[in-house]
Amino acid sequence: MLNRDFRIFNFVEKPMIPKPVEEKGWQKPGTGVVKINFDAAVYGRKMSFGLVARDHDGFVIGGRVGVLEFNAGAEWAEMRALTESMELAREKNWLKLDLESDCANLAFKYNCTKAFDMDYPDEIHD
């Protein structure tokens, strides 16, 4: 059938069979775990990063932002944000971390436990 082969949809009428809804969004970490969400951006010769740390109740317990004049790519900027996240965790003596980034390349390329030789039970996911 042409509709199935080419995925032609009628956007004027509502579908007879609705698509399943995927629940996406921030989720609280487990008890005793600190979740750090970090992100970075590059514009011209500047990069900026930010991170927010929350406890198992979702309460903000720390954060950090920064701007550097450095000609770098997006992946390097995300790596810098990861480094800042780890430094904040060390400063605050947070031992159980859940690290979250929107950078799929970073998540697929690096495993913190091995790459950074850390004792943290880290999880990097998209």
UniProtKB/TrEMBL annotation:
One annotated GO molecular function: nucleic acid binding
Pfam family for this entry, one: RVT_3
CDD domains with a match to the protein in the record: RNase_H_like
Ranges for domain RNase H type-1: 37-114
Source superkingdom: Eukaryota
InterPro entries named in the record: RNase_H-like_dom_plant (IPR044730), RNase_H-like_EbsB-rel (IPR052929), RNaseH-like_sf (IPR012337), RNaseH_domain (IPR002156), RNaseH_sf (IPR036397)
UniProt-recorded name of the protein: RNase H type-1 domain-containing protein
Organism: Gossypium aridum
